[in-house]
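Notes taken during the Thursday session

The instructor put the following on the board and asked us to keep it in front of us for the whole hour. The protein is Outer membrane protein. We were told not to look anything up and to reason only from what is written here. First, the residues (90 in total):
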Amino acid sequence: LRTLSGSRYDLVQRNNNIILEYKKQDILSLNIPHDINGTEHSTQKIQLIVKSKYGLDRIVWDDSALRSQGGQIQHGGSQSAQDYQAILPA
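Then, after some discussion, the predicted structure tokens were revealed:
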């Protein structure tokens, strides 16, 4: 027979090897071309590949280096948040 009077101070035998299976979810993936080539002041479409779990409203570009050279990035005018074009500098 087993008595419980002395066992109340014993350590509880548990399986402490907890394994958590967690996969990092990709919320947003944005692929842009490495190079955009063209002649001076030409307008080149930026081919974006966007994969988003929740959709995409807009993209905020840091084009200060491009603007300082006389170029710019602007929205293409469609309703798509992926429609952008680059105006190349001189």
